Amino acid sequence: MIGASALGLLWPAADPAARDQAGASATLAPLPDRPVTLLVIGSDADRLGTTSNGAAPPGAPNSDALLLVRIDPKGPVQVLGLPTELAVKLPGQRSAIPLGAVYRQGGVALTATVVSELVGLDQGQPERYLVLSRGALRQLVDGLGSLELSPERTMRYADKAQKYTIDLQAGLQLLNGAQVEQLVRFREEAGGEAARRKRQQQVITGLQQQVTEPSQLARLPDLVRKLRRGVETNLSEAEALTLLAGVLAQPQSMRFASLPLEAPAQPQQPLRQLSPDAALPLWPPH
């Protein structure tokens, strides 16, 4: 693990004026002195290291959610939701596959390479990654207490094969970890994957709001330490706290973006194409 002194060499602490503006974040960890891009992979497996996702349809774990998060100490946190249904063609393969299936093919390394080329990131980006299982998501939410969220509709679904049930009511309420998992896993024919990405955005906003509560500050180091057992990442504990400090320093500014997709040629089209009008780099905005 990288200690505080080594971390200072990698990402020197912000100047005193910036620390004053950051408020409580400065007591958590030093702010990064440059933007850092993090690839977040939400696995559809209940825990990492399993050979099956235990989901529907069953199979090897896929990335059920893909996000690029850019934390800039001098600007807003930016989040790009990557469509898992986007068609990509890997070298040596004849047919296109969903972007979400790339993780099954080649893990984090291949996913990061494909995402970097797709979006037009600079060489060596994204420099950090985090793979979060469904179990780790539940642990994260429960570790924060709960999230205040407002599902836009009643959601009900039952799968006897995987012994999984979704049962959520519409409206503002406090959701625990298992309920938040239900919210992000729910699929509907009408909204498709785009509706799921909106719900993911809702959860991210809820997580940010909960993390920035003053009462959470003292709990964050212990929560990060516990979560590391259930995630895969190249972030040290100290680096994770530094990025959290960057999020805390910009509590009111988080910007969401999405890749431009072509309209589906037919309803329930399984793969989508990137809009031909899209020009690199697609993200982050400059």
Please report which band the strand proportion falls in: under 5%, 5-15%, 15-25%, 25-35%, 35-45% or over 45%: 15-25%
Strand order of the largest sheet: 11-6-1-2-3-12
Mean pLDDT: 86
Number of strands: 12
Helix content: 25-40%
Structural class: alpha+beta
What is the approximate shape? globular
Query: Helices and strands, in N-to-C order?
Result: HHHEEEEEHEHEEEEHHHEHE
Distance between the termini: 33 Å
Query: Spans with pLDDT under 50 lasting ≥5 residues?
Result: 1-22
Number of helices: 9
Q: How many whole angstroms does the radius of gyration measure?
A: 19 Å
Provide a brief overview of the structure:
This protein is α+β, with helices and mostly antiparallel strands and 286 residues long. It has nine helices and twelve strands.
